[in-house]
Specification:
mainly alpha; 285 residues
């Protein structure tokens, strides 16, 4: 059995690795769309090929070091990026068996459980992660997002506030907290949080899209249009962002641009009701 105590240098390395892995797994791609993902998965062919190669390399590492929990945890992350969540859970579980105090492995397994819609198990793992390491921001972020998904806003805000205190330079907790304020109708505070998220990660599309929704709610049409365009610069296959851009242009009185945006939204998702209704409005008369 492993000795439960590790050196300070190894502990720091493990903590850094666990945080990086957890953030990679749990990148905050959630928006107000309830069907959106809870973790990023690299699905492109090159990413699939690269990650498959990593699996082989990490398996060799594990064969040479079968008692190393970090090796199992790392391979579990690669499995998760390939969408192989059952394999990921198995590896995270093995890491936890080898080191029952491995906070990062609990956090990562919780995120994998969320992908498998096993939220009760995910909550148990987030709790275990926080018990093992009360100063781990990633576990608070993950648990806060899970609580937010179940409309437990007070608990979610407490966890996200703690995540921000522990990792004030992280963008994801600000974004997630902004979504709660937005849902509660506190658009000014939501915009402040989305600003903070964008300042920390200007290349993520979701905070622009979310801030654009708050600008729409407060009648700031041009700012909303600018934000939806920024979100589309990150991902131009986002049907919801195109539809929201159409609404912003419609409010600005630019019917041609509104129609173009609504058509783009509908072409990407023929079932987008907002796009169809908007296109009918701007095309009428």
């Amino acid at each position: 059995m492993m000795n439960g105590r590790i050196g300070a240098g190894q502990a720091a390395t493990r903590a850094s690795l666990a945080l990086a892995i957890a953030l990679a797994l749990g990148a905050c791609s959630e928006t107000m769309n309830p069907s959106s993902k809870v973790a990023e998965v690299e699905a492109g062919p090159k990413a699939q090929e690269s990650n498959a190669g990593n699996i082989d390399s990490l398996t060799e590492v594990i064969q040479r070091n079968p008692r190393d929990p970090v090796a199992y945890n790392t391979r579990g992350v690669v499995y998760a990026k390939l969408g192989r969540y059952s394999n990921a859970v198995d590896d995270f579980s093995h890491a936890i068996e080898l080191d029952p105090h491995f906070s990062g492995a609990y956090t990562n397994r919780a995120l994998a459980y969320r992908q498998e819609k096993q939220d009760d198990l995910a909550m148990q793992d987030f709790d275990q992660a926080i018990s093992a390491n009360p100063n781990g921001a990633a576990a608070y972020l993950g648990r806060g997002n899970l609580e937010r998904a179940h409309d437990n806003y007070d608990a979610a805000l407490a966890d996200l506030n703690q995540a921000i205190r522990l990792n004030p330079e992280g963008a994801q907790a600000y974004h997630a907290r902004g979504l709660i304020y937005q849902r509660q109708g506190n658009q000014a505070q939501a915009i402040t949080d989305f600003n903070n998220a964008i300042d920390r990660d200007p290349f993520a599309g979701a905070p622009y899209q979310a801030r654009g929704q708050s600008y729409l709610a407060t009648g700031q049409w041009q700012k909303a249009a600018d934000d939806f365009n920024a979100a589309l610069n990150v991902d131009d296959h986002n049907s919801e962002a195109w539809a929201s851009l159409g609404l912003a242009y419609e409010k600005l009185g630019n019917r041609p641009k509104a129609a173009e945006a609504y058509r783009s939204a509908a072409s990407l998702n023929p079932g987008n009701a907002e796009a169809k209704a908007g296109l009918a409005r701007v095309s009428a008369g």
